[in-house]
Every structure is written in C-alpha cells, then in structure tokens.
Please model this.
Amino acid sequence: MIAVIGTGYWGSKIVSILENKNLEVEKIDIDDDITKIKSNNVVISTPARTHKDIVKTMLELSKNVLVEKPAFINMKECDEIETVLKKSKGKFMCGHLFVHNPNLHKFKNMDISHIEFRRLNMGKAQDDINPIIHLASHDISILDYLIGDIPKKVKSTSYCISKKTQPDYVTIDLIYKNTTAQIQVGWYYNEKIRNVKIFSKDNVIDLEDQSNLLDISLSKFISYCEDDIEPVTNFEHTKRVTQILDMIQNENIIISSE
Model:
C-alpha cells in the first residue's frame, strides 16, 4: 500500500500510475488527519508551502517519504527536516523527475563547458511561489546530477511584467569550477519552450525528453522502500538543490517598470 497526500492535477496522475502497477493506494486529502495514514510509504503532492510540515510529520512517524518538487522553500526548512530525518527510521526522496531521464545519464562523465536551460510558457502564475523555486528547481536538479557541486557564483534577474504578485520571467547565471550554466524560466511567454542544450568544446547537443519520468520516479521510490536501493534524488541531493536555490534568491535583482 502507498498513500498519496494531495490528489489534485498532479496527485491524480500519481494515483493512476500506482494503480496501474496494481498497488493499493490510500488517497489522502490535504485537510485530512495525516497522522492516521495506514501506509508506511507516502507520496506528497501538495502545494510547496505545505511540504515541510507534512514531511516532518511523516518522518516523525517513521514513514518513507517521496515529496514532489520543490521539496523545500528555503534552507531553513531543509535544515529542520534534516534534523528530523537523522532521528527517523523513515526514508526521504524528492521527485526531481528529470534526473531520471536515461538520455541525461550519458552526459554524466562528459567534459561539459556550458549548459543552457529554457523553461518558458504562458502558464498559470503562482501567487505564493516564484519561478525560481517553482520552475528552476528542475534545472538545478539536473545541474546537481551532472556536476554534483555548489557553484562558486550565481547571478539572477527577475522581471515583473504582468504586475502580478510574483515575477514573470527570470534569468539565472551560474559559475562552477569548470562549467557555466544559464537558466531562463517564466510563465509569461507566448510559446512553450522546454529545452536543454549541453555544450562541450567540440559540439552542442540537445537533451532529448523522456515521456515516462513520473513512472520511473515512482518505481525508484518503491525500490527504495522495498529493497533499500537509494535513489539519486536522496536527501543530500535535495539539500544541495535547495542550497543553490537559496543562493539564487539571495542574489536576485527584481526589475519592474513601476
């Protein structure tokens, strides 16, 4: 049995995949009493602002946890969970789906000079979370998989165009020891763009998408729970991703016409 907390748009996809694997799914609403969950394995698919408290409660109950991205809003939340995790018998995994793309794995040991990420569309702007946390967390997770280090320097500029509560478009530059990266994310753009370009000294290669990444992520979680096969998107990976996102937000400049 696996519990799924939050069965909205994304949570319903999770439930469907798990049921197709012939697993019994315990469906939990965000307003339910989560301390009464029967399953030892829990997938959290709720708004990001709720993740820390739900993860904390589940780990205190020694549940195994898969939390969808972004796992945490900042390092303060991450540090609090790390303290709980050290005392818990539960396991932690984050749903950074793109790290599970088999097409990414061939670049793991490649001599990469630069990586460009573009994640843009005319989407629904979030009121309580900015594009850095909501969108760039995908790309930072990919960078962590490929590089596995904290950048020496970051620079970020957010543009407020539609005058909503959060910026619409963000550019991020990251400088690592031997690699640079640029990320463009936003939800106020007149076409949908999802691409990653990987630059070596000799070539530029587009990272090909993989369609079943959620299925792969859930399978990794099941293997972690049942066979103790630790996934790449473990707590240490999640901690580095959160640390980099914190660095970006701390160095972020917000530009508005007002």
